[in-house]
Design goal:
single chain; mainly alpha; 5-stranded parallel sheet; globular
Length: 800
């Protein structure tokens, strides 16, 4: 029994009008439909479907019982996109597994794969019903996809229906600002008397005008209650009573099907209902037929489901606890059997099995140890932690160990610290105690708890004994603590060098020895090499930095994409410092291609901004500007999903200064310095502003230059990086010389120490010296400046 569509004509016109603007050049449009339970949101979306002829439509729906299952809501979209030629295979491998991906699978990589595959499809409509029940990861995917379509001006329409809730508010705040006229918000008010009366008489033609008005009044203008009240006689406004009465008409089979659907919490295929209940298909079909007649169940594109969330909740209350536990167990077993390597489906199975009282510890251990475990998110971590607390001692201990690693990957360092610091030590082998202490130290360092981190490191050192792998890991972690916790980069570099010296004699050539031993040794070497590479950078030793980066890139190739990209980038930086700017470009192009092939958006930002800086030096401003635009677009959509620092905070403004709008560039650099918390990166904004003002306004900008110089020097000292301090001293001295502060400029140069191998800093030293000569009226500056030009040409510093 279905009434004509009445009472929402204005809302329907607004939606169809918004969707009519969708074309190949429009960019995205988004509509948000808000309404209380029973207000007719689903009814409006169903009618919308009948009025659209758009070829590509994907319909999603959030379900309360799946709100903690990552990507559950977006599964139909992922399933559609994995069929896209060439690009769909990556979506499938990342979202559903197992794939041959190198490194950890995370949400941003999946989001970027979805963006690329969806872009290839062309204009698409994505409808999300019950957004308030959507899982967090699917909501983040929605934000990411719309932002990406906006930046690329791609046609995408999203219509989301929700109760007034936090997720709806977040969507409205984000998209209203981003899309402006491309965003529409609709609120479904109660049906008017005229519309409600017409609907009641459509549903129950026997009702007279007065009786129909009575039904409308008792419904409060809610389409849901109108539907129920118009189909019954003297039915009280109580959904539990309505459901109970209708279940009485269906017999025990109908009640069992409704109870199962309530327990599952989302639509399912008839054959899956048969599987869970252990019935033949024809028995399920008979029960469903009766349930359809009384309006409790309806088939849909996604499968069989109850007709409304309010009915689902009432049916759940009607089923007894014992029946609910049994149904949870049966459904959980069915899901686990069909899940394969799909971690999100396995998490759903675990949730149901646990609700049914089954032992889920082995499944929890499997999930916690998966290389795709990051996809489970914080909700999945919390669920697995609860399982660990309920498990027997041995299994629970094994699960907790896996969850400590999972917590660190998710950035839940507080959870990781709690797990590793509370791990029992009595009766455990020394190596286990040492590794637990190491991981606790790493978590404490990430939380800036230096004293606690050192305590855990001391315990790890005590239990490491003469084990070279553990000793190396202790030293590598200590180097990190010294650099970031103590602010002592020189001691950190020395500690990292000891770590490398400890592990190098134990490296085994590929194909020899025990593989597990080789893996542990290589892991320790990677940690030591990463620390040593950063130490070489901050200590201004570009040759060692290049050597270590080459080794890192070779070791990580095909094993860990992120480490390989990081090593390629750091190697390119070393080449730049060694005066080989064009070689740096070649290496960065390789890293850029790797980021695109392997879908590494966060790494793309690091590589792209470094490459853009090299291109800027090479004088290829248009290419650099295009890279900056792409990196900005990636950064906007990634930062909307996960907190991250921005790379290249000054680069766009350097380009602005080089293309003539230098006062805009100065304002941008001033703002960048205000917004940046890290002194290591903030000093670049001060330096670029001092350089720009001293070059282009030397007569009027003296005060601003001196202000920038003071701020940059303070940040350079705080950052504790020898190389950055040397560059800061030289560039600040040049700026001061240009505005006439010669004595201060000479004093800064006298404090500078430049490594003879660092050709880039030697270039700056020569340029600064020539600038001081010129400011002092020394005619020999002409010859010195020619030497600077020759140096710059040899290094590929064409813009300089």
């Amino acid at each position: 029994m279905r009434a004509r569509f009445v009472g929402r004509e204005q809302e329907m016109a607004a939606l169809t009008g918004l969707l009519s603007r969708l074309d190949a050049r429009s960019g995205p449009v988004v509509a948000l439909v808000l309404g209380a339970p029973g207000a007719g949101k689903t009814r409006l979306l169903t009618e919308l479907r009948s009025q659209l002829d758009l070829a590509e439509q994907v319909w999603l729906r959030g379900f309360e019982l799946e709100a903690g299952i990552p990507l559950a809501t977006s599964r139909p979209l992922l399933q559609r996109l994995r069929d896209v030629p060439q690009l769909g295979g990556t979506v499938s491998a990342l979202a559903f597994g197992p794939g041959d991906d190198a490194g950890v699978v995370n949400e941003v990589r999946i989001f970027e794969a979805v963006h690329r595959a969806r872009s290839a499809v062309g204009p698409m409509l994505v409808v999300v019903d019950d957004l308030h029940w959507a899982d967090e990861l699917s909501t983040s995917l929605l934000h990411y996809t719309v932002r990406a379509a906006h930046d690329a001006r791609q046609p995408l329409a999203v219509v989301a229906a929700s109760r007034p809730a936090r997720r709806a508010r977040a969507l409205r705040e984000s998209f209203a600002e981003l899309l402006e006229a491309g965003f529409t918000e609709l609120t479904l008010e109660p049906l008017t008397e005229e519309a409600g009366t017409r609907m009641a008489q459509d549903l129950a033609p026997h009702l007279g005008a007065e009786a129909a008005v009575g039904v409308w009044r008792r419904s409060g203008g809610s389409p849901f209650w109108l539907t129920l009240l118009a189909s019954g006689q003297d039915v009280e406004h109580d959904v539990d009573r309505v459901v109970a009465e209708r279940l009485d008409q269906t017999g025990p089979d109908g009640a069992a099907v409704v109870a199962l659907l309530a327990v599952i919490g989302h639509p399912v295929a008839v054959e899956d209902v048969a599987c869970a209940l252990g019935w033949p298909d024809d028995r399920v079909d008979r029960a469903v037929s009766v349930l359809e007649q009384v309006g409790l169940v309806a088939p849909g594109r996604a499968g069989l489901d109850v007709t409304h969330d309010l009915i689902r909740a009432a049916a759940g209350r009607t089923a007894g606890d014992a029946q609910a536990r049994r149904l949870h167990r049966e459904w959980g077993r069915c899901v686990e059997h069909e899940a394969g390597d799909d971690e999100t489906a396995l998490l759903e199975a675990l949730d149901h099995l646990r609700a049914g009282g089954a032992d889920v510890t082995p499944l929890a251990v499997r999930l916690a140890g998966s290389r795709r475990r990051r996809l489970l998110g914080r909700p999945g971590l919390e669920l697995l932690l609860a399982v660990a607390e309920e498990a027997d001692t041995d299994e629970g201990d094994r699960l907790a160990a896996e969850l400590g690693g999972m917590a660190s990957e998710l950035g839940a360092h507080d959870v990781a610290l709690r797990i590793w610091s509370q791990r029992p030590t009595l009766g455990r082998p020394d190596d286990e105690v040492a590794r637990a202490a190491l991981r606790a130290a790493a978590a404490a360092t990430a939380l800036s708890l230096g004293a606690e981190a050192r305590q855990h490191l001391d315990r790890a050192r005590t239990h490491a004994g003469d084990d070279p792998v553990l000793t190396t890991e202790v030293l590598a972690q200590e180097a990190v603590l010294q650099r970031y916790g103590d602010g002592d980069p020189e001691t950190s570099r020395a500690t990292a060098a000891r770590a490398l010296a400890t592990i190098r004699p134990h490296l085994v050539p590929a194909g020899e020895g025990d593989r597990v031993v080789q893996a542990a040794t290589r892991r320790a070497w990677l940690q030591a090499a990463l620390a040593a590479t950063e130490g070489a950078l901050t200590s201004d030793d570009p040759q060692q930095m290049l050597t270590l980066a080459d080794e890192l890139a070779a070791a990580a190739a095909g094993v860990d994409d992120r480490v390989e990209v990081q090593a390629l980038t750091e190697g390119a930086m070393a080449l730049r410092f060694l005066g080989r700017n064009t070689d740096a470009e070649v290496r960065l192009r390789h890293a850029w291609d790797l980021c695109h092939r392997r879908l590494l958006p966060e790494s793309t930002l690091q590589v792209g901004t470094t490459l853009a800086r090299v291109l800027l030096s090479l004088g290829r401003l248009a290419e650099a500007a295009e890279l900056v635009r792409e990196c900005r677009a990636v950064g906007r959509r990634v930062s909307a999903v996960t907190p991250m620092r921005a790379f290249g905070v000054t680069l766009a403004w350097s380009l602005e200064a080089s293309t003539g709008r230098w006062r805009t560039a100065v304002d941008g650099l001033r703002a960048a310095a205000r917004e940046e918390d890290n002194p290591h990166f903030r000093l670049q904004a001060h330096l670029e502003r001092a350089t720009t003002v001293s070059r282009l306004d030397p007569d009027g900008g003296g005060a601003e230059v001196r202000e920038c110089v003071a701020a940059a020097l303070d940040d350079a000292v705080t950052a504790g990086c020898r190389r950055c301090l040397s560059e800061t001293l030289l560039r600040c001295a040049q700026g001061l010389a240009r505005v006439g502060s010669l004595a201060d400029a000479r004093e800064l140069v006298a404090r500078t120490s430049v490594n003879a191998a660092d050709e880039y800093l030697r270039f700056w030293a020569a340029w600064t010296g020539a600038t001081i000569q010129l400011a002092a009226g020394d005619l020999a500056a002409a010859g010195t400046l020619q030497d600077v030009v020759d140096r710059g040409q040899r290094q590929g510093l064409r813009l300089e």
